[in-house]
Amino acid sequence: MKTLDWGPAAGRPLGRVLWTLDAFRRRVAPSRPFAVFFFAVLLGRALVLGELSPFGLAFWAASLILWPAWAHVAFAGWMLGAALSPVPHVPAAAVAAGLYGLLYRFSRRVGLPAAYTPLVVAVAQGGAAIVWRKLFFPLSPYAWAMSAVEALLAFVLFIIFVQSFPLLFNRRLWSGLRQEELIALFIVIATLLSGTMGISLFGLDVHAVLSRAVVFTLATVGGGAFGATAGVLSGFLLGLAESRELVEMSALGLAGLIAGLFRPAGRFAAAFGGLLGLALIAVYAPGTKELGFVLLEALLGAGLFLAVPEGSLEALRRVVPGTRAHLRDQEARWANVRRAVETRFGGFAEMFAALAQPFDPVGEEPPADPREAAVRRVAEAICGKCWKKDVCWGKYGEETASGLRAVLERLDGDKAPAWRLGRTWADRCIKPDRLERALEREYSREKEALQAAARLRAARRLLRDQLLGLARVMEEMAAEIRRDGPLSRHREANLLRAVEQAGLWVQSLDALSLVPGEVAVELVVAADGFQAVRELEALFQSLLGERIVVERMEPVPGGHLIRLVSGARYRVHFGYAQAAKGGGLISGDSAVGLDLGRQAFALVLSDGMGSGEHARRESRAAVEMLRAILAAGFDGAVAVRSVNALLALRGLDERFATVDLAFVDRMSGRAKFIKVGAAPSYIRRGDAVIRVEAQNPPAGVFPEAEFDAVEVSLRPGDVVVMLTDGAYEAKRHPEQRERWIRRLIREIDADEPQAFADLLLDAIVHETEFSLSDDITVAVMTLEEEGGAWASARPAEGARIA
Question: Is the pTM of the predicted complex or chain greater than 0.70?
Answer without folding.
Answer: no
